[in-house]
């Protein structure tokens, strides 16, 4: 898939655990894990907004487009 999720990188940069982020954002830790692994078909904008607010970042810091070769 050409969209890469860098949520794990942002969590590491902010020294935050998935559990803490899930509590702040209001979604389950399992859903955070699915997002980190890229095993989701989509993400709601309001969820993305809350993640960005919690991590103090932009959507482009979390989502990256890498064209397939």
Description:
This protein has helices at 7-13, 18-25, 29-37, 45-55, 59-62; strands at 3-5, 63-65. Helix content is 57%, strand content 9%. By secondary structure, it is mainly alpha-helical. Strands 1-2 form a two-stranded antiparallel ribbon. Helix 2 (18-25) packs across helix 3.
In the predicted model, the low-confidence regions spanning at least 5 consecutive residues are none
The number of helical segments is 5
Q: Please state roughly what percent of the residues sit in beta strands, choosing from under 5%, 5-15%, 15-25%, 25-35%, 35-45% or over 45%.
A: 5-15%
How is the biggest beta sheet arranged?
2 strands, antiparallel
The radius of gyration is 11 Å
Helix content class: 55-70%
**How would you sum up the global shape?**
globular
Distance between the termini: 11 Å
- What is the element string, with H for helices and E for strands? EHHHHHE
Mean pLDDT: 94
Structural class assignment: mainly alpha
The tally of strands reads 2
With strands numbered from the N-terminus, the spatial order across the biggest sheet is: 1-2
